[in-house]
């Protein structure tokens, strides 16, 4: 039986005829609706699959491709003299996929779908007809991302691959990484599309394939964050920042999702001011009824702001998406504001009741390490209020603080933090009945001894507590960061406040943390492509919107005249 003869495969022939019509009309949405890959299939697809299995079983893919080529002259001949052979190969792979897929075997389905999406990406690259398949690329990418994340959550299904990877030499990409790399091919194709306007914007909307930039990028980011390969996301953010149209012209869901992942990426790389900037924009745009999404954004937004010295208000704690935030964040904020080093140590201990929650969202270490700086600032401020010399403006004598007082208070709080009594203190209403009778001595684990000298120490080893050198270093670091305003007299071991005559000792010596950070940071957020500046008009605005003359861009000056040359 000849491949072009309809006898024996009437449903397949009818399906190919419809595909030919869709390509002629360049109806991308209808093409996506036709190319279904997820079961259960409708009767039409069930009949077509049966025909393919009977007429084109495994091993007869070349014959199947010949039939597709004969039935799709629009793709075979292409447009503008460029045949769309990649689409014919994709359709052949599509038929092979629905013929062979077994959803009970997720790993095999993943491999088959990966190959299908790669063929789909190749078809997307056609300069004029590729736009037709973009909705299909996006739909398939969503399925592949969901499947990759599902496999990542079920390691027992890929345990043998992990073992093979450990046995082989070199680094082998994981299944989620492989899926992200496949999706990245489509992302790059959309990003580099030159079939539309130079700026990628037409009538205030994305033009051509650039419409798919953020949708596909968000799917890549979802996979990378799920499998904790966030470092691989840097290239995505960099490419978008340099080549994408402004984020503001894309649909709101895409903007929110992208800014959320950008904020998380910046947070994980310790760029907390930039992170809160992106997360705040995502939170402001997220609809109130999207509680799950607003809660996810708010977790990282609150953590970023606490590190920057901005604490949540009672109004924020009362929001429905902030349920449970007060019992987790409020004690931490109080310990920071009071300079209570002992309580801060207890709250940031891995054994604390809320530590697992912070660890789950990967904000525990940032809060523990970055907020300690603010605790020390508050501790020094409290010490100054209690024991500092306020100075005399008439006598031109600056307010000072004896660092010995800071050392005494710090040692007392550290000793308290190390004691079993403090470690078991769950707070009022949560203490053990015999709490007041417990030993206040630090546990043996707190008395560090270098293993090379174990057994040689005389008497009981001492607990490692802050000394004057450490206090001086901390104060000097706070001064360098702008969180303290003054200088240290290392000879007298005193901290002197500058500018007290004009502002007063406390406002001058202990400036607002948020204002200090804000004054030192730029509003520009790498990875967030914003609208061109208002002063840029015409061709200049177009070049900026297209990614030209911006950070990281290369400007060709080969045709530039020398300085002072007459035009």
Automatic annotation (TrEMBL):
Protein's recorded name: PCI domain-containing protein
Gene Ontology MF term list: double-stranded DNA binding; RNA binding
InterPro entries: Csn12-like
Entries under SMART domains matching the protein: PAM
Highest taxon listed in the record's lineage: Eukaryota
